[in-house]
Amino acid sequence: MQVRHTKGGRRGFAALSAALCSLLLLAGTMSMPAQAQEDDPAAAVTTESTAMLDVEQQPALPGLGAYIDGTIEAQMALEDIQSVTVSVVKDGELLFAKGYGMQDISEGIPVSPETSLFRIGSTSKLFTWLSVMQLVEQGKLDLDTNVNEYLDFDIPATYEEPITLSHILSHTAGFEDGGLGYLIQYYPNKGPELAEAMAKYIPARVNPPGEVSSYSNYATALAGLIVQNVSGVPFNDYVEQNIFQPLGMKYASFDEPLPPELEPFMTRGYKRELGVWEKQPFEMINSFGPAGAVSASAVAMAKFMQANLNNGELNGNRILSEETMKQAHSLLFTADERVNGMAHGFYEKDYNGYRVVGHGGDTMQFHTDMAVDKENNLGIFVSYMTTVSNAARNNFVGQIYDHFYPRDVEPVEPPADFADRAGKYAGKWTFWRRNVSTIEKMFGLMSNGIDVIPTEENTLLVTGPFAVRQFVEVGENLFRQVDGDEQIVFTSRSGEGLDTFYFESLPFMAMQRMPTFETSLFKYLLPGLALLLFLHSVVSWFYKRKDYKTRPAASKALTYNTLWMSIVHLAFVVLLAVVILGFADSLYSGIPFLLKAALVLPLVAIVLTVIALIGYVKRLTSGDENFSVGRRIYYALLVLSGIYMCYFYYYWNMLGWDYFS
């Protein structure tokens, strides 16, 4: 599954942000039996024999093995990576395949590129897309037909135009994002099966289909269900029979848990706990399996890349016709023809001027990338076992191109008159890939969005999702990175001003202008000030409680009304942070009862805020001479803070548990 790129929030929600940033998606615990090693020579591959697959003398890319060795070893040391597997194919041959680190630390089994299985996350989607294209080729599916025609339930008709497979393949179906409580389980737990999950977890539709590309795990899994329904074969079996077996991908499977014959070859997931590697349970996403459940070896993925490069054929076995495979790799959607876009499920990237199609993938434990370059007849696959970050996989393919296919970046001078139009690009932007209808909307609190800021050098400063970069105008609404190849483009969906923004390297992640209430003022500053006032109210009572008890009844009532209001507001925020931190590793597999219980507090806070407001109005209109101007202002600020926080909870879907899917 793909990672959300966000920028951290501020102090008021620091605990919440830190926990939620670690969540995403998608490994077994049994070691390989001795008998299996004896029966299957491939199962006993050593580090030395693994390295023999590195054919450094290949004239195509001389020195490839040494370069990859140096790159991977540096990444493993610097980013605390436990194990890696790599394969490179070129001109129809397996050019390089190697494993690094250990498949199983406790059993002392090194990674084998031929047999060691890695979880490839959303790279699995490519098998789903090609399964769809197989059925299109057979005339059993049509890319432009309402998907409800292929389902036993209906996707709600939120918009007049129905969702089609073309929309799903290009991530333009218009679904919101979602996954809290159901996206991932851990062995031996399993979620509902694919068909049940698709009917149960239908996300809200937030955009008309075909307008913007916004990554959707649900839509991909839905495509897998359609393959299952139309073919009459369970999805996992369909891919096994129609892709894995024809290509000889013996060490690849969608099954969770793995079948007995493959389970001993699973690269174990590890996480540092108290400074040492601790084995983690196998990640289970069977409910959304077509979106990211594959376990595969590097050599198996090399065969898949060869079939893609050879237009659907490998060793005399064909999974797609040449025409259909070319269609699968062809452009289906782009926000602007001058930048990369979405092919038929594959996404385009540009590496030093070469068009590459492929897909990355991330689980909680593994991070993967696969790239296919038809012009150079080159395919690159890499997968890392690490729970630290996905930075290594994001950079690996680009490093290969920079070394073997370098290109000088020609500087571009900013237009002298750019300042005259810079303002129309400036502002806060946020990804469409987010949730709006459930409790998961609160994840937006961890994102401060992306700032686009005009500079005195007539460039645009863009703060994320990568490192801060500057872009220079190279065409109408088109910008190129000052010191690189990345491009950004601004478009208009409504026809009334620029309202959509894409990074060329993320053609499946459209952005919109950030809603006003989600900007820092309303999301961090005002809630922070409100919490400080609540805290002051509680602390003041603690130090002045004896004095408060001697005050007149009206004064005492207002004091205690605002005190209880403040306590409940503070208690909710603190408890929410504690729950998120305490259950950070399991929030995508289930909703803890404590979180549901915590969400009762905002309802209580509303009642207490109304009581405090009534009490304040009564005292303000009572003509009480002891109600000084200073106290009037203080209690007014307290009550207004309570009112604001009640709306805050409402906006971020924190009022009770009805917002859970």
From TrEMBL:
The keyword Transmembrane helix applies. Residues 1-36 form the signal peptide. The chain crosses the membrane at residues 521-543, 563-584, 590-613, 633-652. The keyword Transport does not apply. Keywords: Membrane, Signal, Transmembrane, Transmembrane helix. InterPro entries: AmpC-like, Beta-lactam-related, Beta-lactam/transpept-like, TAT_signal. Pfam families: Beta-lactamase. Residues 69-385 form the Beta-lactamase-related domain. This is Beta-lactamase family protein.
